[in-house]
Amino acid sequence: MGSSGHDHMGSTERSCLCLSPPYDGDGIRWAEETEDIKPSHSLLGVPDLSWPLVCLTGNGGLAREDLSMAEAAALPAQGLGSPEPSPPILSPAQNPPIEVQGKAEEYCLEQVQSMVVGEVLSDVNKACKLLNIAPDPQEWNCMHVYKWLLWTEHLYRLPQISTLFKELSGRDLCSMTEADFRERSSQFGDMLYAHLDIWRSAAAMKDQWPPEDFKSANDNSWCNCPSQPIHLWQFLRELLHKPHNYSRCIRWINKEKGIFKIEDSAHVARLWGIRKNRPAMNYDKLSRSIRQYYKKGIIRKPDVSRRLVYQFVNPI
DNA sequence: AATTAGGATTACC
DNA sequence: GGTAATCCTAATT
């Protein structure tokens, strides 16, 4: 029948939702760093630790936005108080076609969050080694707290704030409210509190980071660009490795055997379309691609075939 | 209705 | 030439 005009949606020129390479070079800077923050001292005779996130904007004005940004990014995986963290997830609901843009942004946001969290954790880690203190503030004694305060002073180029928090253990520090902090330093208490918050979040997340898919070979999750074009099976693995974000649309049935179920086919297809910059992607087409894997021995239907359930032939 | 299966064609690296 | 994207028909759930 009339299959004349293949929709061709100008596909040669695909826009790239790319954040460009992660960090080295010039990645993302939320806080526009002024010239150069060269430690004048001392406590840490170490050349340059870069704290790209938690930097101040110049002129002594504290970039509170930056803090809350880092904080927000550090929190979702394991908020402080929240026992059941509800992920900032895409609603598994319907799929209005024009929504793709927004989904792309959300998807991007998730990538950015991962990156930010990774960066924050890495920075906290460096500082721990540098100061020889535990990552978890709860474990600090007074000397540790003091070191941390000096470090934070240095970091944010604060005036002698450490004197205002003398003789406190880590436990004391953690039991203090933001108001308590402000009481000690009306000017910087809130940001110190926020910074401590980041550390606590980082400590809480430490054991579950990095997720397996973070540094693995197939990971080009920082960038939607088809640098090395990602394969569908890799993409599915990627989603499966982030249950926190995607278990509502795809999840393991039996991880050991590599059996997984697509819970929301439209949603997964949309994500795939976003990744590949194919706005017209749908489950019909995605599943066709999965079926191509049958012959190649990458994915198959499990022994007892069920709707929307597939199995990696080589589970890892 | 949605999913499954697989052939055919086209597009893109 | 390999991997998807697209399109399609037919069967199954």
In short:
With 316 residues, this protein is mainly alpha-helical. Helices cover 40% and strands 5% of the residues.
Describe the structure.
InterPro entries: Ets_dom, ETS_fam, Pointed_dom, SAM/pointed_sf, WH-like_DNA-bd_sf, WH_DNA-bd_sf. This is SAM pointed domain containing ETS transcription factor. GO terms for molecular function: DNA-binding transcription factor activity, RNA polymerase II-specific; sequence-specific DNA binding. The protein has about 325 residues and is mainly alpha-helical. Among the domains are: about 110-205, Transcription Factor, Ets-1 (DNA polymerase, domain 1, Orthogonal Bundle), CATH 1.10.150; about 230-310, Arc Repressor Mutant, subunit A. It contains 10 helices and 4 strands. It has helices at about 65-75, 100-130, 140-155, 170-175, 180-185, 190-205, 230-240, 245, 265-275, 285-295, and strands spanning about 250-255, 260, 300, 310. The protein has a 4-stranded antiparallel sheet. α5 (about 180-185) packs across α6 (about 190-205). It is elongated, with a radius of gyration of 23 Å. It binds a DNA duplex (13 and 13 nucleotides) through α10.
Structural class: mainly alpha
Tell me the CATH architecture of the domain at 108-207.
Orthogonal Bundle
Rg, alpha carbons:
23 Å
Reading side by side through the largest sheet, how are the strands ordered? 1-2-4-3
Q: What is the count of DSSP helices, taking H or I runs of 4+ residues?
A: 10
User: What percent of residues adopt helix (DSSP H or I)?
Assistant: 40-55%
Query: Would you tell me which CATH topology of the domain at 108-207 applies?
Result: DNA polymerase, domain 1
Largest sheet: 4 strands, antiparallel
Average predicted confidence as pLDDT: 70
Please give the number of β-strands: 4
CATH superfamily of the domain at 108-207: Transcription Factor, Ets-1
Q: Note the overall shape.
A: elongated
Distance between the termini: 45 Å
Order of helices and strands: HHHHHHHHEEHHEE
Uncertain residue segments: 1-98, 212-226
